[in-house]
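Regression test case RT-17, inverse folding.

Input:
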C-alpha cells in the first residue's frame, strides 16, 4: 500500500465481528482463549483486548508486530482460539514498545482515563463523558472542561529522543480556538488547537515568543480524522490522516510537564467534539509509522484482510450452518418460542385429524342404520348408557381406543340420543304397564328440536375446540419471526457502528442470521395454514350433516307422534 518502508514495533488493530468471525459462542466469555502468532506460526505475539462482546459478537484487539513490511509485501498473522482450558494471555503493557508512555482507549466506563501502557499514566477526567468512537468508545467533550495527565514516568520529550502525540478527532461544528492538547516544560509550552475547522500548532518559549503553523487545509466536519504531531531535532511535523499537513522547523522543545487535553486548565478553550485513542510516545515516530497507524485504525481499513478459517481446509461447511452460527441470543429466544408454537400446532392438527376422521366414519355408520328405520321406531338405535360414557372419555381417546360398537365417536348419534331422551321424557309410564301412546303437540316437537339444537351447538364447539391454536400460529408466527429479524438487524448495525468496520462482508452474515427468525415464523405459519383450511372444510361438512339430521329427525317424530 502507501506505507513504503518497514515499520518497527507497530500495533495493529484487529476488528472481529459477524462479517469476518463467526465463532464468538465457541470462545471463553472474556476471550481468554485468544492467541496471536507471527507469520512463522511459531512466535507468540503480545496483544491485549480493548473490547470483547460475545453477545453482540464484536471484539477490538491490539496486537504488537515486531515489524511491518512496507510496500506491497504480504504478511500473515495467525489467530488461535477455542481452547476451553486456556488462561488469559493478554498483556497490555507488553503490547507497546518502551517509548510508548501513554495510550488512552476510553473503553472502560468505570475507568475512562486508564492508561493501557505499563507506565500507568492515568488521566484525570473532568466533565467529559463516554461516547461512540471509530474504535469502540470515545471521549466526548462539551466545551466546559477537559482532562489532565500529571507529569509521570516516560512522559518526556527531548530534542535527542523526540516525541509523538496522536489521537482520533471529530467535531460537528467549527471551533473557537478549542484546545486539543498542550504540553508544558521548563523551556516553554506546546499546544495544538482548532480555529474554525483548521488544526493549528503553537509553541511558546520561555521568553513568550510564539511560533505557530496551521494545517494546510481545514478538516471535514462530522468525520473522524487521525491527527499526529511528531517532534525531533529537525522540528515539528503535523500529520492529518497519515499525511504531512504542516511543519515548524527548528523548534525542538524539551517537555516534561503535565498534559492538558480538551480544555485549558482554567476551563477555557473548551473543545466541543470527540477524541479517541490518545497516545504519547517519547520518541519521534517515522512518517510510515504514522501512516500505518492512520490506515490500519480507520473504520474502512484495508491494510488488514481477514482470511478463511483454518479448520475449513479439511471439510466444507454448509451455508445454513454458517448462518445458524451467527444467530444472536435474541434470535434464538424467538426461534425457541416459534418451535413451541409449531409443536402445539402440529399436535392440534394431528389430534384433530384423527378425531374428525373417526367422527366421519361413525357418522356414516349411524346414518346408514338410521335411514333404515321406519317412522314408528325412530328411537330403536338409542343407548341409554351414552351419558355415562361421555363423562368418562375424551373425543381423542375415543377415536384412538374406543371399540365403536355403538357409534361412540359419532356426534350425529349424540344429537340423536339427546332428541330421543327428550322424547322419552314426555312418555307417561305406569307400574307394570307398557308405555302409553305418545302424542306430541307442536310445542312438544319444538321443545325436542330445541334440545337437539342445543346438543348440535355443543358438538360444534367440540369440533372447533383448539382450532384457535392454529389461528395463533398462522397470524402470530410471521410477526414473531419479523420481530426477531428486526431486532437482529438492529444489533448487527449497532455492532458494525461500534466496531467501525463498514463493508458487505460485515453486514451480510448478521442480516442472514437475523432472517432465520422470519424463516422460522413462516415455517410455523404455513403448515398451520394448510392444516387449518383442511380441518375447517371437514368441520363444515360435519356441521352441515348435523343440521340436515336434526331436520330429518324432527320431521319423522312429527309424522309419527303428532
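Golden output:
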Amino acid at each position: 500500500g502507501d506505507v513504503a518502508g518497514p515499520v518497527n514495533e507497530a500495533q495493529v488493530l484487529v476488528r472481529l465481528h459477524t462479517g469476518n468471525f463467526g465463532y464468538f459462542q465457541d470462545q471463553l466469555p472474556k476471550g481468554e482463549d485468544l492467541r496471536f502468532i507471527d507469520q512463522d506460526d511459531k512466535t507468540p505475539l503480545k496483544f491485549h483486548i480493548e473490547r470483547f462482546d460475545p453477545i453482540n459478537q464484536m471484539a477490538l484487539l491490539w496486537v504488537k508486530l515486531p515489524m511491518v513490511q512496507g510496500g506491497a509485501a504480504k504478511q500473515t498473522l495467525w489467530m488461535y482460539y477455542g481452547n476451553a482450558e486456556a488462561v488469559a494471555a493478554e498483556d497490555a503493557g507488553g503490547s507497546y514498545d518502551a517509548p510508548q508512555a501513554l495510550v488512552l482507549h476510553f473503553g472502560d466506563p468505570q475507568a475512562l482515563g486508564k492508561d493501557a501502557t505499563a507506565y500507568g499514566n492515568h488521566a484525570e477526567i473532568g466533565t467529559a463523558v463516554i461516547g461512540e468512537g471509530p474504535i469502540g468508545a470515545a471521549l466526548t467533550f462539551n466545551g466546559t472542561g477537559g482532562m489532565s495527565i500529571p507529569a509521570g514516568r516516560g512522559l518526556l520529550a527531548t530534542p535527542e529522543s523526540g516525541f509523538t502525540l496522536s489521537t482520533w478527532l471529530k467535531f460537528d461544528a467549527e471551533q473557537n480556538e478549542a484546545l486539543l492538547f498542550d504540553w508544558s516544560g521548563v523551556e516553554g509550552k506546546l499546544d495544538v488547537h482548532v480555529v474554525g475547522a483548521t488544526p493549528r500548532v503553537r509553541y511558546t518559549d520561555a521568553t513568550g515568543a510564539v511560533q505557530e503553523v496551521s494545517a494546510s487545509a481545514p478538516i471535514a466536519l462530522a468525520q473522524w480524522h487521525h491527527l499526529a504531531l511528531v517532534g525531533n531535532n529537525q522540528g515539528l511535523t503535523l500529520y492529518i490522516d497519515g499525511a504531512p499537513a504542516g511543519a515548524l522547523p527548528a523548534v525542538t522543545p524539551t517537555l516534561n510537564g503535565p498534559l492538558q487535553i480538551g480544555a485549558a486548565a482554567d476551563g477555557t478553550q473548551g473543545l466541543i467534539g470527540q477524541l479517541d485513542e490518545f497516545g504519547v510516545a517519547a520518541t519521534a515516530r517515522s512518517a510510515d509509522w504514522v501512516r500505518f497507524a492512520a490506515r490500519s485504525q480507520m473504520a474502512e481499513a484495508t491494510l488488514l484482510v481477514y482470511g478463511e478459517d483454518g479448520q475449513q481446509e479439511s471439510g466444507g461447511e454448509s451455508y445454513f450452518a454458517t448462518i445458524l452460527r451467527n444467530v444472536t441470543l435474541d434470535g434464538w429466544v424467538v426461534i425457541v418460542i416459534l418451535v413451541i408454537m409449531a409443536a402445539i400446532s402440529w399436535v392440534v392438527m394431528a389430534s384433530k385429524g384423527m378425531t374428525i376422521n373417526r367422527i366421519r366414519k361413525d357418522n356414516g355408520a349411524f346414518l346408514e342404520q338410521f335411514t333404515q328405520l321406519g317412522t314408528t321406531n325412530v328411537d330403536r338405535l338409542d343407548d341409554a348408557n351414552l351419558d355415562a360414557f361421555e363423562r368418562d372419555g375424551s373425543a381423542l381417546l375415543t377415536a384412538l381406543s374406543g371399540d365403536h360398537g355403538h357409534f361412540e365417536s359419532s356426534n350425529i348419534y349424540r344429537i340423536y340420543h339427546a332428541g330421543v331422551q327428550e322424547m322419552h321424557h314426555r312418555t307417561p309410564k305406569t307400574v307394570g304397564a307398557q308405555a302409553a301412546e305418545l302424542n306430541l303437540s307442536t310445542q312438544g316437537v319444538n321443545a325436542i328440536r330445541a334440545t337437539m339444537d342445543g346438543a348440535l351447538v355443543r358438538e360444534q364447539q367440540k369440533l372447533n375446540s383448539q382450532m384457535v391454536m392454529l389461528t395463533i400460529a398462522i397470524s402470530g408466527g410471521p410477526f414473531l419471526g419479523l420481530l426477531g429479524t428486526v431486532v437482529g438487524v438492529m444489533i448487527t448495525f449497532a455492532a458494525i457502528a461500534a466496531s467501525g468496520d463498514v463493508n458487505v462482508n460485515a453486514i451480510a452474515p448478521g442480516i442472514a442470521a437475523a432472517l432465520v427468525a422470519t424463516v422460522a415464523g413462516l415455517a410455523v405459519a404455513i403448515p398451520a395454514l394448510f392444516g387449518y383450511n383442511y380441518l375447517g372444510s371437514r368441520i363444515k361438512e360435519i356441521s352441515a350433516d348435523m343440521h340436515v339430521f336434526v331436520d330429518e329427525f324432527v320431521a319423522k317424530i312429527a309424522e309419527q307422534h303428532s
